[in-house]
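Quarterly update from the structural biology core.
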Amino acid sequence: MSNQQVAADVLKLVGGKANINSVVHCATRLRFKLKDETIAKTSELKNHPGIMQVIQSGGQYQVVIGSHVGEVHKELMILAGIGEVSSDNEEKGEKQGIVTTFIDIISSIFTPFLGTLAGTGALKGLLTVLVFAGVLSKESGAYQILYAGADGFITFLPIALAFTAAKKFKTNQFIAIALAMSLVYPGITGDGLNFFGIPVFYGVGYASTVIPIILAVFLQSYVEKFFRKIVPRILKIFGVSMLTLLVMVPLTYIAIGPLGLIIGSLLGKVFEALYGASAVFAGVLLGGFWQIAVMFGMHWGIVPLVINNLGTQGFDPFLPMAIPGIIGQAGAALGVFLKSKDMKRKGLAASGSITALFGISEPTIYGVNLPLKKPFIAGCIGGAVGGGINAFFGVKAFAFSASILSFPNFISTIEGVESNVFASVIATILAFTIALVLTLVLGFKEKNTDANPEEAESINR
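Predicted structure, tokenized:
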């Protein structure tokens, strides 16, 4: 089925353009905000051959397509004749709860660039391997140029965050970028910094930070709105941006930025305390339940913390705990491939196992493991074991990447910070193998998708 046909069917079944407030996409899902979710024909969408699953979570109506969701989203935009937001006056609908609102904000801000962040992380890992193997030296021009590509994105992460946050908070994206650039401007050293006599806490600066710029852009949305109302039309072309920056830049340096750093530090200390209380328990919990968290969007509570840790500390202990949860689903999918008698399901399982190994697990979950139940549970068990091992041996990530390509990123690049990359290899192998073996032993109940509807179910055990 063509991407255009899938897009046309989805558009029709969610209730058409008139029922869409907004639609964006992440790695595998179309994320709708519908005016009325009851209008959407959920059962028909779930049974559509081009759709893996439908999830109603976090105030969004999520249609799981697969790794080609970007192409479907593009066709959907053309067919519907809309942008990511169909109207500037988006209907409010029912008031969302705090948790739902938080998930919606965080996912909207971080989703657009996670692929790029993962790509730069993989490049950083490749460079680590090349240096370790003696192919490159850190002093060489080739290494320095490539490392700029690998490290530049997270160094200037506030700029990317400003762009996506401004889009979410419906404020001028280029004013937000100018605000972010002021925070990472290299000319400010922070030594004895003050603003008309008001002392400014600068610390180590705002490069790679997460929370300060998000708070600043949120406040910018109100400040800019105020100036748009009072600035005469003839002066708006430069007056609004000038006055907004005149207020926001010093306010961010004096108050918002330091507040963001404090919040980030406190969050880090809370998770460090939990990690310190029982690292193994934290690893088992994160590895075992990571894919369940992804299903309901709850992983967005951890992703910003991971990125914040990488930016402020240079390493993160939580990503290595979560990755075995993804690898476990790959092992379970391979078990389905080996045991299933259904040729269509075997094909889905084979491709799903490969995509999960490279960090994209949603097609594997919704298309293979979750419908069969036991393989999904097997994958979670394998993930729990792997996560616990990584936690026990103190494995840390030094760049953002969540796949079998992550191993080089577990090699310590910071003097005095230890990380056991060999333990991470063992944890990954065990997560995969345990999930595979459990799937083969426990079996699963399946319907032959190649057979006629009248044919009986088969039980593989």
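The chain has three domains: 3-91, 104-267, 278-460.
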